[in-house]
Amino acid sequence: MGKFWSFLFLLVPVLGVGLFVWAPFNHHWLPRDVSAHGYQIDHLFNFILGLTGVVFIVTEMLLFWFLWRYDGKTNKSPVKFTHGSHNLEIVWTILPAATLLFIAIYQMNAWADVKMHKPDMLPTVEVTARQFEWRLRYPGKDGKLGTEDDLFHVNELHVPVDEMTLVKLDSADVLHDFFLPHMRIKQDAVPGTSIPVWFKPVQSGEYDLVCAELCGWGHYKMKGRLFVESRSDYERFLAELEKKQTATNVEKKAEAEE
Amino acid sequence: MSTTVAGSHAHDEAHGAHAHGSFLSTYVFSLDHKVIGIQFLFSTMLWLFVGGLLALGIRWQLAWPWTEMPVIGKILFAKEGGQISPEFYTMLVTMHASVMIFFVIIPILAGAFGNYLIPLMVGADDMAFPTLNMLSYWFMWPAFALMICSFFVEGGASAAGWTSYPTLSAIPQAAPGSHTGQTLWLWGLIFVGISSMMGSVNYMTTIIQMRAPGLTMFRLPMTIWGMFITAVLQAFALPVLTAALFMQVLDRMVGTGFFIPEGLIVNGQSAGPGGGQPLLWQHLFWFYSHPAVYIMILPAMGMVSDILTTFARKPLFGYKPMVYSISGIAGLGFIVWGHHMFMSGMNPALGTTFMVSTMMIALPSAVKTFNWLGTIWGGKIEFTTPMLFALSFVCMFIIGGLSGIFMAATPVDIFIHDTYFIVAHFHYVLFAGTAMGVFGGIYFWFPKMFGRMMNEPVGKLHFFLTFIFLNGTFYPMHILGAGGFPRRLADPYHYETFKHLLAMNQFMTICAICMGFSQFLLVGNMAYSLFFGPKAGRNPWKANSLEWMAPSPPGHGNFDFQPVAYRGPYEYNFPGHDTDYYPQIEPPRPGEKQPEHH
Predict the structure, then answer these.
(1) Global pTM?
(2) A window 131-190, beta carbon within 8 A of B
(3) If you measure CA to CA, which chain A residue comes closest to B411?
(4) pLDDT by residue (tens digit) across B9-55?
(5) How many domains does chain B have?
(6) Could you tell me the CATH superfamily of domain A120-257?
(7) What whole-number distance in Å separates Cα of residue A49 and Cα of residue A51?
């Protein structure tokens, strides 16, 4: 039976690596990256995958080999009576320590780019998450939020391609999370705190905006869309938004006067 | 050093009252650590069943969203036409995690195995504080009752996730479960905390004060080291959780607003004057709950170390590095909590600090894994059921440990945070790791607990099916996570990005259902062996540590002689010795060179 169990444990690295080889070629992998910074994240993911993959294969194969070789039923050599090895302990402490320290330092820049080096500009849009929708507010002609010409919209976030977008992220009620899978962006929206989020899309298209923090019974349907479009399309969208809004305002005013 | 020095005679007089007491004092409010341990074991196994059913509910929804559940759907969800409602789904994810963490893993490790094994393995007649010990079990019952009640109150059980993040949890109108259900949840956890604290004080005192003569700290089995460090972690971390729980109770019942900022309108209603910060809860919660992650694995690591040495018939490789590793994990465990909060809005520079400490905590886990491999290298492995479970712990812990590095890397975490990648990670640590270690522990110590052997072929079948189906359930979660598949979402498929992941989820659900059914083999095996298993004798596995020297099951006061330890517990195949094991209590032969630890 020892051989049978050894093979069962061998299945883990074989199928485990197999699935990770199969997945990227069958659309079960990271969604297409359409951001300027995303390649750093994907590179790190693949780098750590490679590194941990090697450790995974080596340790699991050792486990298999030890089970196979030292099966009590077939192993005729005497038990290696030992309490350990000082030198081995030092080797397998220092090697992983150095590797982990390397990973730690290697990633710092990518993190700083996405979360710390805030671009010096006024917010492109204010996103306020609330149960269960994304309220959007564009600064309008004066480029400033909180003025009379602000433009309002819900759930459909339009941003210009190849330009940095700075989002002022708020929440009106509970925690939400502003997750753009294709943009490699994720940030909790916290009530009472405005958090800046920035990204630069490099490909036009329509993408998902996901709420990734449990926010109540309707969490699953708190779905937004991200429209990455050319500068001219983006401006056309804003102009139409303005036209619609002015029309509604005029109507409202008329109603109020009546 | 030990209270047993006085001998079994004096002991009989002291404890005679409950040795021949009524049914109530012998089996219900027993002061005997063994009875309390078994009470914990059976209670937590019942909760394991509840938590497992909740998990299958989640899996059903993810595989066949908004469809009628076969057989039980019509009974459970009559109003929704037999399907899971979105609000019930959020309760499922919340309660599955809460039950598994606070009512299964923590109490089965510390409460069941800790209680049963600590006095036996240190050669004591009972815990240092038997009454406190009895109370630590009975304080679980208010918690059990509150959790069960919470399903039936208006709005239903807590639905803010097991992390219970404000403001969703703190404002009653934010979610159906945030009405009465959340208050019951908070009080339930406060009771669990009191129970854990009483256990923790007891374990530390017993291990420090009541060891048998000759049993130095560095002659303790790894199980005891795991329990000891766990108790220390509980003692230091629990007060912070308790404070946080009370603060949330006050926010909800008195309107203190510790965690609620001002001016919120939730569901059309004002949330009160506020003035607080939601992130404060996260810091306090994770200051406890990160050490709690280690509370949920260190005892299992200890148990696995003991099982591996016994069935490899070899000393533990690197005893002291193992002890230093778990101590290192415990120390570092207090300065890594921020890695749960990389995306929370916490200062990103602080994120970098937590990233570095998190990378470092991977190190002691790596050292432990290498030492386990070193332990089976060159042995004579016996493939018994407990050994198979212990080996699978090592095999699966490698996966759980390595996947942690992805999340520790802050930039990668931006993408995989709150996706199924993290779900894969902690299920590999807690289910494929701890739960497999616990199953191994049950098969290993059952003969000691009940004096009868469990059935080996059935045990092996249980292992085989669990091993296959658990990997079928949890391994694909890594791939889902790489696809960005978010957790806690009742219907991820209406996002274009995740549509194609449905088939994989259906496969996982089928595996999960099969895994659930496989557990009846364990229950059946235990129930049958309890009455009809072959008699075990004192030391069925030919092991060294003290508990195997006592009768099976041990009577009141545990030992029928005064145990004295002459060496560590791992001297298997000691050169020149006539048997391949060398119990701790056996005096050295004249002229025999005694082993020393390196």
Answers:
(1) 0.95
(2) 131, 172-175, 177, 179, 181-182, 184-188, 190
(3) A111
(4) 444 444 444 455 688 888 888 999 999 999 999 999 999 999 999 99
(5) 1
(6) Cupredoxins -  blue copper proteins (2.60.40.420)
(7) 6
